[in-house]
Amino acid sequence: MAPDINGEDVHIQRGRIFQRGVYPPEDFAPVKKYGLNMLVTTDDQVKAYIKRIMKQLNTWMAGGKIQKLVV
Question: What kind and span of H or E run contains 31?
C-alpha cells in the first residue's frame, strides 16, 4: 500500500518553493507544524498547483509506478 502524500507533506514542498526564491517572501505566511516553524504559501494558484502535483504522485505511488521521490 502506498503512503498518502497529499496532506501534510504539502507544507514541506511549499517551504522549498520559498527557500529557492521562486516566489516573493510576501506570498508566504509562518505556521507551526510538527513542532517546527515553517513558511507556507498564501497564493491560491500555487496551492492548487501543488495539490495537483501531489495527487498525481499519490496515483503513481499507489499504482506502483514509482516507489520513492527525492526532492
Answer: strand 28-33
Residue 35 CA: distances (Å) to CA of 31, 38, 55, 59:
10, 9, 26, 29
At 69, list the grid cell: 521521490
pLDDT digits (tens, 9 = 90+) for 12-48: 555 666 666 677 778 888 889 889 888 888 888 888 9
CA dihedral 43, 16, 40, 3 (to 10 degrees): 100
Length of the chain: 71
Give the tens place of pLDDT for each residue, 46-71: 889 888 988 998 899 899 998 877 76
Lookup: cell for 49: 498547483
Please, is 34 exposed, middle or buried when counting C-beta atoms within 10 Å of its C-beta (0-12, 13-18, 19+)? Answer: exposed
